[in-house]
Specification:
By secondary structure, the chain is of the alpha+beta class. Helix content is 45%, strand content 14%. It has one domain: H-NOX domain (Alpha-Beta Complex).
């Protein structure tokens, strides 16, 4: 079970990201991040914040890589859970509709990641905006020198890849860096070959419990 409105997909994705990037450190983080499959454990907000705090202490390269992988895993597993028919219908939609679907999937992922977040998504004139209030990754005691929204950036990018749309995702502002909220801007390009659900993030075939 999961406490404090924390999504199980987030925990499973972080667990796998750490396993990929720093496997020797995984037993240390399993003090807070219950391995996927142990459904009897309860995951609270305090243990998650502790794990994220220690991840930041690992240094930027390791932290960024874990978050990017975790974000891609979350998007991959979200699409995998869709029915084949729904995925097929989505990929037959016009590019503009697929872009809006990618933004909707992104908004829903933020909401599922942490119930306290209040995401809003919109698309106007080829630009998507994802506003995130109370990001679980940006609850820091001291202002961060750089944004800490890498998990969401990677997930949004991955959703657009799955939907067959070229896109560039950037962090416009981050609460951890002193802004009132986190905002991701998506520059939406043209159509591309959709990413297959079989084309998972390199490293494992592990699925979220």
């Amino acid at each position: 079970m999961v406490d404090a409105g924390i999504g199980r997909l987030l925990i499973a994705s972080l667990h796998q990201g750490i396993a990929d990037v720093a496997p020797t450190r995984l037993p240390f983080y399993e003090s807070w991040l219950t391995p996927p499959g142990l459904t009897t454990a309860r995951i609270g907000l305090a243990p998650l914040n502790a794990a994220l705090s220690f991840l930041r202490l690992e240094g930027r390269p390791a932290y960024d890589e874990v978050m990017q992988r975790a974000g891609r895993y979350s998007a991959d597993w979200t699409l995998r859970e869709m029915s084949p028919m729904r995925r097929a219908v989505l990929r037959r939609c016009p590019p503009a509709v697929r872009a809006r679907w990618a933004m909707l999937l992104s908004r829903n992922l933020v909401a599922d990641t942490f119930r306290g977040s209040r995401p809003k998504a919109r698309v106007r004139r080829g630009v998507g905006i994802l506003d995130i209030r109370a990001s679980i990754f940006c609850e820091v005691r001291e202002q961060a020198p750089v944004p800490l929204c890498g998990y969401y950036v990677a997930a949004v990018q991955r959703f657009f890849e799955h939907c067959g749309i070229d896109a560039s995702v950037l962090t416009q502002q981050c609460r951890a860096a002193g802004a009132p909220a986190c905002t991701l801007a998506v520059t939406i390009g043209g159509a591309r070959e959709p990413l297959s659900v079989a084309d998972q993030t390199a490293g494992t075939e592990t699925e979220a419990a």
